[in-house]
Design goal:
The protein is of the alpha/beta class. Among the domains are: 107-167, no CATH class; 247-331, no CATH class. The chain has helices at residues 54-61, 84-91, 101-104, 111-121, 130-140, 157-169, 187-204, 215-221, 239-244, 249-261, 295-299, 327-331; strands at residues 6-18, 25-38, 43-47, 69-74, 77-78, 94-97, 175-179, 207-212, 224-229, 232-238, 305-306, 312-313. Strand 1 (6-18) and strand 2 (25-38) form a beta hairpin. Helix 4 (111-121) packs across helix 5 (130-140), helix 4 (111-121) packs parallel to helix 6 (157-169) and helix 5 crosses helix 6 (157-169). It starts with 5 loop residues before the first strand and ends in a 13-residue tail after the last helix.
Length: 344
C-alpha cells in the first residue's frame, strides 16, 4: 500500500472555447500540468485568485470532469485510468464541502433528511439506523439533536456549513475537498468552522484538499501549500517555508495582502487583474504584474526549480528577491484565532 493518499501527476484541463457564432474554437488552458501529492491525515492547500484553476482541479479530483491529460492516483489506484463504473467506489472516499452552504442545501428537505441522503443514495447500512447516524453526525459537528427537524432557512450561516460538513461525513470518507469552505461566512464565524475542521481532522484522521483565495485560511489549516496562477504552480512547499521564506513575487504579494489586512505593511500588494487564460502572457505568466520583471521574464518561461526542503518556485530571480516576512501578521489575523463555538 502506498504511503501517499493522493498523487497528482501532470494534470491538465483544456477547454475549446468559441467566440461568437462563427468564431473558430480556441484552447483555454484552465489547468496546465500541475503535479502534487497529499499525505494521509494532512492538508494540502491550493491558493490563488479567481481564474487560477483551483476549482477546476477540485472538479477533476472529484471525478466530475475528466482531465485532458494527467493521472490522479488514490493509494495504489490510478482512478483516471479506470472505467466510469469502477470509479464509483472512490466517490465514497472523497467528499466535498462547498462554498455556499445555503445554496447547496435543499430548502424543501429537513436537515435530518439532507444529512442521511448520501446513506440512502449509496444504500449504506453499515452505520446502523439512519436516524442514529444522523444524531451522531450532528453531535460530531456541534449541533443539537433537534436540528434534524429544522429546515436550512431556520439555521444561521455557520450552522448551515456544519450541516454541509455532517452530510459530507455521512459515508465516513477518507478525504474531504474543501472548496472555499468559509468564504461565504461572516469573519466572526469563519474561525469556528476552521477550528471545527481542524478538530475533525485530528479526531477522524481525515485528509483535506483545501481550496481558497485567502492565504491566511490556507496557511492555518495546511501542512503544504501550492500557489496557483493561470493554471500553473508559481510556488509549492511546506506551509512554514512558503509563509516565511516565499520565493515567488506572486506568493510574496499574497502574503503582503494578509499582512495589510492584519494591520501590517502594505508593500508588494499584487497589482492589476489576472490575465485571461485565453490569451496568457509570454514568458513568465506573472510578468505583467510583477515589480521585479525583466526582459528575460517577458521572453523566457521560468521552470519550477527546487530550493530545498521540498520548496519549488518558478521565478528567474528567486535567489535575489528579498522579502520581509508577514507570517506574524497572518498568524495574528483575528479571523483565524477566535475560540471554537458550536452555537453560531
Amino acid at each position: 500500500m502506498s504511503a501517499t493518499f493522493m498523487q497528482v501527476e501532470g494534470l491538465r484541463k483544456t477547454y475549446q472555447v468559441r467566440r461568437g457564432l462563427f468564431g473558430r474554437p480556441k484552447p483555454l488552458h484552465a489547468v496546465a500540468g500541475v503535479s502534487f501529492d497529499v499525505q494521509p491525515g494532512t492538508t494540502f492547500g491550493l491558493v490563488g485568485e479567481s481564474g487560477s484553476g483551483k476549482s477546476t482541479i477540485a472538479k477533476m479530483l472529484m471525478l466530475a470532469e475528466s482531465p485532458t491529460e494527467g493521472t490522479i492516483r488514490i493509494g495504489d489506484h490510478a482512478v483516471t485510468e479506470m472505467k466510469k463504473q469502477d470509479q464509483a467506489r472512490f466517490h465514497r472516499e472523497l467528499q466535498p464541502v462547498l462554498q455556499d452552504p445555503y445554496s447547496s442545501l435543499n430548502p424543501r428537505m429537513r436537515i435530518g433528511r439532507i444529512i442521511d441522503e448520501p446513506l440512502r443514495i449509496h444504500e449504506v447500512t453499515e452505520f446502523g439506523p439512519h436516524k442514529q447516524r444522523v444524531a451522531e453526525l450532528l453531535a460530531l459537528v456541534g449541533l443539537p439533536p433537534e436540528a434534524a427537524g429544522r429546515y436550512a432557512h431556520e439555521l444561521s450561516g455557520g450552522q448551515r456549513q456544519r450541516v454541509s460538513i455532517a452530510r459530507s461525513l455521512a459515508l465516513s470518507p477518507k478525504c474531504m475537498i474543501l472548496d472555499e469552505p468559509v468564504s461565504a461566512l461572516d469573519v466572526s464565524i469563519q474561525a469556528q468552522i476552521l477550528n471545527l475542521l481542524k478538530d475533525l481532522q485530528a479526531r477522524l484522521q481525515l485528509t483535506y484538499l483545501l481550496i481558497s483565495h485567502d492565504l491566511a485560511v490556507v496557511a492555518y489549516l495546511s501542512q503544504r501549500i501550492g500557489v496557483l496562477y493561470l493554471g500553473e504552480f508559481m510556488e509549492i512547499g511546506n506551509a512554514e517555508d512558503v509563509m516565511t521564506r516565499p520565493r515567488h513575487p506572486y506568493t510574496q504579494a499574497l502574503i503582503a495582502s494578509v499582512g495589510a489586512r492584519s494591520g501590517g505593511a502594505s508593500a508588494n500588494l499584487v497589482q492589476g487583474e489576472i490575465p485571461s487564460p485565453m490569451n496568457p502572457p509570454s514568458g513568465c505568466l506573472f510578468n505583467p504584474r510583477c515589480p521585479h520583471a525583466t526582459e528575460r521574464c517577458r521572453t523566457e518561461k521560468p521552470l519550477l526549480r527546487d530550493f530545498g526542503n521540498g520548496q519549488k518556485a518558478a521565478c528567474h530571480h528567486a535567489e535575489t528577491i528579498t522579502f520581509r516576512s508577514f507570517a506574524a501578521g497572518a498568524a495574528a489575523d483575528p479571523a483565524i484565532h477566535q475560540p471554537h463555538g458550536a452555537n453560531h
